[in-house]
Design brief:
Layout: H1 9-15, H2 21-42, H3 46-62, H4 69-91, H5 97-131, H6 138-169, H7 173-183, H8 217-232, H9 236-248, H10 254-257, H11 260-270, H12 274-285, H13 301-312, H14 320-336, H15 340-350, H16 360-381, H17 394-411, H18 420-436, H19 440-458, H20 460-476, H21 480-496, H22 503-510, H23 518-526, H24 535-552, H25 558-582, H26 585-607, H27 614-630, H28 639-653, H29 656-666, H30 676-687, H31 698-718, H32 728-748, H33 751-767, H34 772-784, H35 788-801, H36 807-823, H37 825-838, H38 845-857
């Protein structure tokens, strides 16, 4: 999920500006609310939308003292946009009954809720306006007042549109009236910025519209909403005045201006002004009075669909000829735009009368309707029909044959070549009609003709269905002609689609077996003799099945699965290479494409095992490149994969420099996301064993560099924070990269590496405060970076963790006082003197010289004041900077 950007209280709380609980609560509620809005906008089902909306409402109810108008509006807007989309689909008759009911219920709820928010914000506006003259900070109050007025306008804007759609979904004149009243807060109603109360705001009026305001998109959209609301109240003249104002204003945003013609269609159709509709449609299509013309431009699909719905649902008691002509115009423009699915949907709703009598589309649609009707009748007869079984019912057979005749007539129309994709669909549907009507041989011919029309790329399904039809015909009534045709079709399929999942089934079909598990299929296909004409196809299928099993194998079975696949895969490559390198034309290109796919699979298997064979993989990669170059295959799309294999080979050979070069080339590529993380992990894992902290060997130096470069990339992908470092593997990664970075600093004076070590160790110590390696590194790197406080903190933690009197304790004591002297020499001297009280001889011999030197560098002990009369004193507070006596029983003096 995308990160939620913070602003306002959330940003201030995150930055530490607010420390009080109320501010923090407001900030995190805002952040959580934004997250709910994001999730609500992404919800795919009504149930998901309802769940996220309920969570948002519960969030608001949990803290009513928090200012939540904008959050509530954002939640409501997320629901509104989905409901608006549904309402427009209802207008175009594209929504289901369930979606229509959902849109109606949602808009009814939204209209009420937006209005409630508007009333509440208006009360705030009133209060702020009354306080404006008394405010001690007039600028701040003016800002709050402007923001409240903005939220009020926003609430009533969406309340108005929700009421428009509510009146559209079912006749509700009151909703249209409410829409105009809500829009009055924005334009022409006396409301808005002047503080007019809710009761005094008048409905929006075009007479009070200021045209210059239409330059603002929300005002222009509000004017369009006023037009629709006026039309819904039966006032088409007022509606058209609104639309004219929007269209005539030069500064109206283009996004709104483009909506005006379709909205005008709605207004005119609702008023039964069909002559005006005809004039508008001709103007939109740039057509003459006959509907044609040299500059004719068909309506866009959405507008054509709208016009079709308006005309097909119109009251045809008047202007029937004109209305039917407009419906034919709309359907014709959908046909011209290749919107066959929409035409079929409209015809299924309103009938075929508007389509006319001739042409491909007319016969195709009628044939499709006849086929679907027969199919529904068959499915209703029993469960066997759902299994794609042909019927034996005479009445159903006749219906299927009639559908096939209509589809055949469509294919024979003079304009059929203009509809290549739909023509293929017609042939496929005709084949199905014949198959379900138990005419298997004609069905196979229809499917094969669809294959010929579709071509190799799209022809797999038609050719496969042709084979199934021939196989069924052979089963029902065996004869030599069908057997020959079936063998020819199977051979054609295997040569045309050698990588298809259906290939194995076809080989099994030739051996007269049924569906079996993969292992049994591998066994049967592996037994195909070398002299069989399907041997190459059989071996390809065995390789495909073995590769699938390799990809699905568990970690314990992966090595064996890889060996099985590689043995067969290399044999298949040996079959393909001569065809790819010695053949001519399309045959050579197809063989090269097969070679490319199989070689990539082999590289995957060879390099994914624990002991990859780098030499064989390198030879195979070189061969793959030679085949692709020879056949001019475009390998740009798989370049990241090939670079990744090159990197794996270099790692397997131990050549990390070559591996790094390949990875650096791979990572920036646009399509490298699937391989770059694996490349980074592979190089990091290969470098880690070579790194020896403190070593002066060049190999260790280079390993440390690679660990820093690629380990940091892995860390950046993981992210940071307590949740990441709760994983021991992440802690280990951070620690190893920090160690390598610190080593780079010590050996190469690499200051950026030092700073990286500081950053990583600080992150580690947040989740693991007493992690000794990180503390020791940080004590050195932080001091070198000038962060004395962090270094001192690390030594203090080590001091607390050390056994009093141990060598580590004396070391940490010395370093703590030394660093404290940098920050506060006087306190350092005090700490040293307390240490001297505990250890007058300054500790064991091994560390005594360090303390002696430290004593010489520290400022002298301040001179004692003259003694005065004794005064009772409280015990001295325990100073964390001063050395403490060893614990009881520690054995120290």
């Amino acid at each position: 999920m995308a990160a939620i950007a913070l602003s306002g209280p959330a940003a201030r709380a995150q930055s530490g500006e607010h420390a009080d609980p109320d501010a923090a609560l407001e900030a995190y509620l805002e952040r959580l609310g934004r997250l709910y809005v994001e999730l609500l906008s992404r919800a795919q089902t009504a149930e998901q939308r309802k769940a996220w909306q309920q969570r948002g409402e519960a969030l608001l109810a949990s803290a009513p003292e928090v200012d939540s108008f904008e959050l509530r509006l954002n939640l409501l807007k997320a629901v509104y946009f989905r409901a608006e989309e549904l309402a427009e689909r209802v207008r175009l008759r594209l929504a289901s009954t369930q979606e229509t009911a959902e849109a109606d219920a949602t808009m009814r709820s939204l209209a009420q809720q937006f209005n409630e928010v508007g009333l509440k914000v208006n009360r705030r506006v009133d209060a702020l306006e009354r306080s404006e003259q008394l405010a001690e900070s007039p600028d701040k109050l003016a800002t709050e007042l402007a923001e409240s007025r903005r939220l009020r306008s926003l609430a009533y804007y969406y309340a108005g549109w929700a009421n428009v759609y509510l009146a559209t979904l079912s006749p509700r004149e009151q909703a249209a009236t409410d829409a105009l009243r809500c829009f009055g807060w924005l334009i022409g109603g006396g409301g808005g910025a002047n503080g007019t109360s809710a009761a005094a705001v008048r409905p929006a009026s075009v007479d009070r519209l200021q045209p210059a305001m239409l330059q603002y998109e929300h005002i222009a959209r509000t004017a369009v909403g006023c037009a629709l609301a006026s039309a819904l109240k039966g006032n088409d003249a007022e509606a058209l005045r609104w639309l004219d104002a929007v269209e005539e204003e030069a500064q109206t945003p283009d996004a709104v201006r483009k909506q005006v013609p379709s909205r005008r269609l709605i207004v005119l159709a609702a008023a039964n002004r069909w002559y005006d509709v005809d004039l508008l449609v001709r103007r939109m299509r740039k057509a003459d009075r006959t509907g044609a013309g040299p500059n004719l431009t068909p309506l866009d699909p959405a507008t054509a669909r709208l016009l079709a719905v308006l005309a097909l649902e119109a009251d045809k008691r008047t202007n029937v000829d004109l209305i039917e002509r407009l419906a034919r115009t709309a359907l014709g423009d959908l046909v011209a735009a290749r919107q066959t699915a929409q035409v079929i949907d409209l015809v299924s709703r309103y009938g075929t009368a508007a389509l006319g009598e001739a042409g491909f589309i007319v016969n195709f649609v009628r044939g499709a309707q006849a086929f679907e009707e027969a199919r529904k009748l068959q499915i209703a007869t029993g469960p066997s029909a759902a299994d794609d079984e042909p019927t034996t019912d005479a009445a159903l057979i006749n219906k299927y044959r009639a559908a096939a005749d209509l589809l055949g007539a469509a294919d024979a129309q003079a304009d059929a070549p203009e509809f290549a994709a739909e023509r293929t669909k017609a042939r496929l549907m005709r084949g199905r009609a014949l198959f379900f009507g138990s005419a298997f041989s004609p069905a196979a011919e229809a499917f094969y003709s669809a294959f010929e029309l579709a071509g190799r790329v799209q022809g797999e399904e038609p050719l496969w269905l042709s084979i199934l039809s021939l196989e069924r015909g052979q089963r029902e009534a065996p004869n030599a002609a069908l057997t020959t045709r079936l063998s020819q079709a199977v051979a054609l399929f295997l040569s045309t689609y050698p990588e298809s999942d259906k290939g194995a089934r076809l080989v099994l079909l030739q051996t007269q077996t049924g569906d079996i598990p993969d292992e049994e299929a591998i066994k049967i296909l592996s037994a195909v003799p070398r002299d069989s004409p399907v041997y190459p196809a059989a071996r390809r299928q065995v390789a495909r099945l073995l590769y699938s099993r390799f990809r699905a194998a568990s970690s314990s079975e992966r090595e064996f699965a890889a060996q099985r696949f590689v043995a067969v895969g290399e044999e298949v490559l040996a079959l393909e290479r001569p065809l790819a390198m010695e053949g001519q034309g399309p045959e050579a290109v197809q063989a090269a494409e097969r070679y490319l796919v199989r070689a990539r699979q082999l590289l995957d298997a060879m390099l994914s095992v624990s002991t990859p064979d780098a030499q064989r993989a390198s030879t195979l990669l070189d061969s793959l490149r030679s085949v692709t170059v020879y056949n001019s295959l475009d390998t740009k799309a798989i370049q990241p994969e090939l670079l990744f294999r090159q990197m794996q080979i270099a790692v397997a050979r131990g050549d990390l420099n070559a591996a790094e070069k390949a990875a650096i080339t791979l990572i920036p590529l646009p399509d490298a996301a699937a391989f770059a993380p694996a490349a980074e992990r592979a190089i990091y894992r290969a470098a880690a064993p070579r790194f020896k902290p403190g070593s002066d060997q060049p190999d260790s130096f280079e390993a440390a560099r690679l660990m820093v470069v690629f380990g940091l990339r892995i860390i950046d992908r993981l992210g940071s924070g307590s949740s990441v470092l709760a994983d021991p593997a992440a802690v280990n990664l951070y620690s190893n990269v920090a160690a390598a970075a610190a080593d780079r600093w010590r050996s190469q004076n690499d200051q950026p590496a030092r700073d990286l070590a500081v950053r990583l160790d600080k992150a580690l110590l947040v989740s693991s405060p007493r992690l000794e390696p990180a503390l020791r590194r940080l004590s050195q790197t932080a001091e070198a970076a000038g962060d004395t406080a962090a270094a001192l903190s690390a030594w203090r933690t080590l001091l607390d963790a050390a056994q009093p009197g141990s060598p580590g304790w004396f070391e940490a004591q010395h370093e703590s006082i030394r660093l404290l002297a940098v920050i506060d020499p006087a306190r350092a001297r005090q700490a040293f003197e307390q240490f001297r009280v505990l250890y007058p001889d300054l500790g064991p011999e091994a560390s005594r010289d360090k303390f002696v030197g430290l004593d010489e560098r520290l400022p002298p002990v301040p001179a004692a004041a003259p003694p005065g009369p004794p005064t009772p004193t409280a015990p001295a507070a325990r100073d964390p900077e001063v050395a403490q006596p060893p614990a009881s029983g520690s054995g120290q003096p």
